[in-house]
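Researcher: For the record, we're logging two predictions in this thread. I'll number them. Prediction 1 follows.
Model: Prediction 1, sequence and structure:
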Amino acid sequence: MNVQATPNFDTTKYSAPTAEFALVFYKSATNGACVTKHNIDSQGILGDGYIVESSTVAQVIQDAVKPNQTASNKNDFIRSNLLVDNSEVVMWFEPSRKAPMWRRESKLVQYNAIWPALLFIMPKHGDSLYVFSLASDMRPNLSDTVYIAPLANLYQSHNFCQGSATLPINKTAESIDEAAATIYESAFTHFHTLQSFINTPKNGWHFWEDHQSKPVDIPASIKPLCSLSEIVKAVSNGEAITSLNSLFTSLNEKSAK
């Protein structure tokens, strides 16, 4: 198969690109679909292909795009709620909001909640989302305290049990709204732990029943976890997930004593 080597655009304004690879999509009524990646030689000839996992196709394309090709198309505006965006994680916060909180029993139950300000950490590799609470809607400083999130479906390691709520394939600063929606729009089931509450309720849902349409006083109601600087240090040392889990394990052991 030959690939046209001469681009159909004005090369006086743009340098002619070099074809590097092609993705070929196959679809079968009996065998489903698959994608193969083929390198292209200097003569424009398509080489032998190998199968690419469908879940990584978008990442393959993203990795192939050079920074200078995307610079003119990328919005340079930095969102005010973005805290960390490095090669391993995206970290951001969301101010408190008045929105329904859903609980799934034999039927859906709605709580008229005023969600506290939340802090999110989304690793760029894998499918996990860490969630914490904050004392105010202001952009947090490194010295500010991070609190445990008083939410259901959170493990003791502070990552959310995603269930059927799927995180975005491309975990970037541009996809944080989609990631946060997996929390705000989730139908929660149960509390894995009641470790977040200062005055432990009989059931975590009793706490939200008592806070129908009322804001949560986080410092008065929820246990502190650590300072924001400790979390930022953990996600900035090159092994973010390992460091985060080590930090949370250490903090949980201290709180248990």
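Researcher: Logged. Prediction 2.
Model: Prediction 2, sequence and structure:
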Amino acid sequence: MEDALAHLTRADAVLDALPADAEGFAVWYERGEVHYRRARVLTEAERFEEALAEAEKAIAVHEGAGSTASWRGPRRCGSPPWSRERPRPDR
């Protein structure tokens, strides 16, 4: 567990070194993912209070940037827009 947490700390340092508007890279999204992964690791370690705090940070990051970001990251739930039923031409 400690190795995983150390790895996530290094990921934070990498994200801190990137400009917020890095071309083709959504720093806000990756930062939210690091918080989410840290919450999962802390949950496995049964450090629930810390895990909850990290999960709340992940939610805040994703909700805060989602409405203004030009790239919103991969879809995690629901069906992708291209899978929706499309009207069929009459035969």
